[in-house]
Amino acid sequence: MFEPKIPASTQTRIDGRLVEVAVRVSARARSYRLSLPHHGKPVLTVPRHGRWREAEAFLNRQTAWLAARLKRNAGPLPFAEGAEVPLRGVKHRIAGTGKIRGRVEALLVAEGPALLVPGEPAHHARRLTDWFKAEAQKDLEARVAVHAERLGVKVVSISMRSQSTRWGSCSSSGRLNFNWRLVLAPDYVLDYVAAHEVAHLVEMNHSPAFWATVKRTLPDMERGRAWLKAHGRELMAYGVEA
């Protein structure tokens, strides 16, 4: 029987509408897998020696799961005038100052917490993103220093990234990368990810020994971990253009 070529993308019908699904062939995958990134189209992963007929049948069996996840998935939440965005867990409304120069400021105004952004409206999103990155850098440097001292490890550098699926990463050389959107979450969430990545300098895995290391430096680690599991998808959507 003729075996169809694996396409770069396909479509499936969800609640009466066609949804595009990216198809990715992976040498590391051992089974068919369907995933939904924090933003973007669903991804069907096919093992290198997989067959398209089997992959397509697998996708058809997963339509109910995909429909439920799409309903929960947050759409893009761009930084625009009047939009609300959290800062350290507290919602702030974005407002232009009308001034050409100045710095972004987080202030309490008559209408409530606000992020006041100077410059042309077309540049507000970039200015606000840069400011969030600087605030995240400051917060993470402080918390990483605490956990590094507790665990007796050395951190070489801390960098902000805009990953769409990860909150942090760590190299064996001591270089840590974090998603700047952590500054949008409550403080204890950022603290958990800081502790998590520093703990990888002790255990470069996710073994029981690793989790014991995280708990050693942050006994209340489950609080931040649970928050990310419940709200991380929405958090990843902030700052993404529609």
Could you describe the 3D structure shown?
With 242 residues, the protein is of the alpha/beta class. 36% of the residues lie in helices and 24% in strands. The protein contains six helices and eleven strands. The strands form three sheets. A four-stranded mixed beta sheet has the order 1-2-4-3.
Secondary structure: elements and pairs:
Layout: E1 9-14, E2 17-26, E3 33-35, E4 43-47, H1 52-61, H2 63-72, E5 84-87, E6 90-96, E7 105-109, E8 112-117, H3 124-151, E9 157-161, E10 168-170, E11 175-179, H4 187-199, H5 208-217, H6 221-237
Parallel strand pairs: 2-4, 6-8, 9-11
Antiparallel strand pairs: 1-2, 3-4, 5-6, 7-8, 10-11
String of helices and strands: EEEEHHEEEEHEEEHHH
What share of residues are in beta strands? Answer: 15-25%
Q: Largest sheet, if any?
A: 4 strands, mixed
Uncertain runs are none
The side-by-side strand order for the widest beta sheet comes to 1-2-4-3
- What is the CA–CA distance across the termini? 43 Å
Give the quaternary arrangement of the chains: single chain
| Mean of residue pLDDT values | 92
Contiguous helical run count = 6
Cα gyration radius (Å): 21 Å
Structure class: alpha/beta
The overall strand count is 11
DSSP helix fraction? 25-40%
Condensed summary:
By secondary structure, this protein is an alpha/beta fold. It has helices at residues 52-61, 63-72, 124-151, 187-199, 208-217, 221-237, and strands at 9-14, 17-26, 33-35, 43-47, 84-87, 90-96, 105-109, 112-117, 157-161, 168-170, 175-179.
List keywords for this structure.
24% strand, globular, 242 residues, four-stranded mixed beta sheet, alpha/beta, 6 helices
